[in-house]
Amino acid sequence: MALYGIEQVKWEDAAVAWNLEGSLWAPSDGFENVIFFRVLEKLHKLLANEFYVPIYFDEHRGNQSFLIKPLEDNLEQTFNSGQEREYMVMIEHKLLSGGSFNRNHIKQAAETYERVKKLIFNNISHENNWYNGRIESIITTRDEEALLSEMQFNCTSREVSPN
Q1: Where are the beta strands (DSSP E) in the chain?
Q2: CATH fold label, 34-160
Q3: pLDDT tens-digit readout, 134-152
């Protein structure tokens, strides 16, 4: 295994123990990327199964799209066997209007976020991934070209240590 400077880290080597200047670093057993695998990925799948609209994690593209952005990860409780955390995620829906707004644009944006609210309500507990899932708030703004609906999704997840 080769050692790389910070700018040259090879992620495929991440599962290998590294020995740097007398310190041994190895990934811990039982590590789970909860926010990504239990929250963001499952939220992406729910939206993708409900809508025929592209979903991104970096930026909006096209005439309409969703953007998923993790905002907060807060510790709620600690147990001997793990912890309970609350996650806050922004779900943005952007609808281009071509510079003119009318009743149909507003109706389409509202229908989309109403469907998201219902989808989350129907999945308030999503398998063993999260519980108490909810849309806390929705803010809709517009600029010269688009309507942007920002939906704040919150949920709680419990991670249990493998020990």
Answers
A1: 18-20, 23-25, 55-56, 64-79, 82-96, 131-142, 146-160
A2: STM4215-like (3.30.2000)
A3: 999 999 999 889 999 999 9
